[in-house]
Write a structure and sequence with these properties.
α3 (82-91) packs parallel to α4 (108-115), α7 (194-200) crosses α10 and α11 packs across α12 (288-303). The radius of gyration is 19 Å and the shape is globular. The strands form 3 sheets. The chain has an 8-stranded mixed sheet with strand order 5-2-1-6-7-8-12-13. A 4-stranded mixed sheet has the order 4-3-10-9. It has 322 residues and is of the alpha/beta class. It has one domain (2-319): NAD(P)-binding Rossmann-like Domain (Rossmann fold, 3-Layer(aba) Sandwich), CATH 3.40.50.720. The protein has helices spanning 10-21, 32-41, 82-91, 108-115, 158-168, 180-191, 194-200, 207-223, 236-241, 256-262, 273-283, 288-303, 312-319, and strands at residues 2-6, 25-29, 43-46, 51-54, 57-59, 71-75, 99-102, 119-125, 128-129, 135-138, 140-142, 146-151, 173-176, 242-244. The protein binds NADPH dihydro-nicotinamide-adenine-dinucleotide phosphate and ketopantoate. Ketopantoate (KPL) binds at residues 104, 127, 190-191, 194, 255-256.
């Protein structure tokens, strides 16, 4: 199996370097300063236990790759960047190779299934950072991260097993699941607080806000009849595989939405809190708190508000949260 990592950033950067260093053939697709840095020097993979520069073949677009039947394509970009990436894959000749959505939220799989027949979901449990070009950091050890993998909309097949085997050989813990979307909905609940970390800062005392966002979303998911599997800190696999800790001379741990804002990019909020707002509208369940988080993300982008500079106290008071 050859693995194509589409979107070499935090998650894609760790995956590309870890798979390549374990002997899997990898091609990365990157852009901008990350592309230039990886082509010049490779990927510096950092974790609490590893600091290694790994050379990885990296190109600017799928059009530069002659796709093979044994390719597994891993989408590792933010959801707002998925649709053009799928178009580029199709124009490059991809047909029925497995496409794995190694992404947060639950919208990518349906987007991919519109264009391709062989789509898989992956739940990503890996606190990863990309702030400096050419560097991908995971704060997790002894495994770099943990993944649930399965076919979309359900079931599992040989492609899931093959990817899990490659990942397990590359210092990850990977599990094949027949209902991977239940795990991905569980992860979605955790990501409703991403915009909070981005607006108020990674150290803000925002537990009550996160709990309220989650409770609102749980009511929506229950009304929608969606099965949810808990993959939060209480998932016992985390204690075995994912002990997170600081890394000397590395940036502190932060969520992917904050990193997007710090790099001057767009945010994924419409596919995180926005998924809950959309389901709420469909099923007649009000979602004022998640709506407020979406409005906050729009305000931050429109007004160029510095990440971490919004007042948590004022926001919680306005939302009636203590
Ligand atoms: N970071 C984390 O800790 C975690 C992230 N996730 C999820 O994983 C997914 C990826 O997140 P993350 O790794 O943080 O994202 P990043 O923004 O760090 O990485 C994505 C990379 O893909 C690049 N990219 C996007 N579109 C293209 C394209 N068409 N061609 C080439 N490169 C492209 C982006 O470039 P550019 O920078 O120019 O936009 C960026 O470098 C998201 O869904 C996220 O929510 C899940 C768990 C943890
Ligand atoms: C759970 C968390 C916050 C881990 O980094 C994540 O999924 C993200 O950053 O998007």
């Amino acid at each position: 199996m050859r693995v194509i990592i589409y979107g070499v950033g935090a998650v894609g950067g760790v995956l590309a370097a870890a798979l390549q260093r374990s002997g899997t053939e990898v091609i990365g697709i990157a852009r901008g300063r990350m592309l230039a840095a990886v082509q010049a020097k490779g990927i510096r993979l950092r974790s609490p236990e590893v600091d290694e520069v790994v050379p990885v073949t990296c190109v600017a677009s799928p059009g530069e790759i002659t796709f093979r039947a044994d390719d597994a394509i891993l989408l590792c970009m933010k959801t707002q960047d998925t649709r053009p990436a799928l178009d580029a894959l199709r124009m490059a000749g991809v047909t029925d190779q497995p496409i794995f959505c190694v992404q947060n939220g639950v919208a990518n799989e349906a987007m991919a299934l519109r264009l391709f027949p062989n789509v898989h979901g992956v739940t990503v449990m890996m606190p990863a950072t990309y702030l400096n070009p050419g560097e991908a950091i995971t704060y997790s050890a002894p495994k770099f991260g943990m993944f649930d993998i399965g076919r979309f909309p359900g079931g599992s097949d040989d492609a899931d097993a093959a990817l899990a085997e490659a990942l397990n050989g590359a210092t990850f813990a990977a599990y094949v699941k027949d209902d991977v979307m239940a795990s991905k909905y569980g992860k979605l609940l955790m990501n409703l607080g991403n915009i909070s970390g981005a607006a108020f800062g990674p150290k803000a005392a925002d537990k009550p806000l996160r709990a309220a966002l989650r409770a609102e979303a749980e009511a929506v998911l229950a009304a929608s009849g969606i099965r949810v599997e808990d993959v939060s800190q209480t998932d016992p696999r985390r204690a075995v595989h994912m002990k997170t800790g600081p890394i000397p001379d590395a940036p502190g741990m932060s969520n992917s939405t904050l990193q997007s804002l710090q790099r001057g990019g767009s945010v994924e909020t419409d596919y995180l809190n926005g998924e809950i707002a959309m389901l709420g509208r469909r099923h007649g369940v009000p979602t004022p708190l998640n709506d407020a988080m979406i409005a906050l993300s729009v305000r931050m982008l429109r007004e160029g508000i510095e990440p971490g500079s919004v007042s948590l106290d004022e926001t919680m008071a306005a939302l009636g949260i203590r």
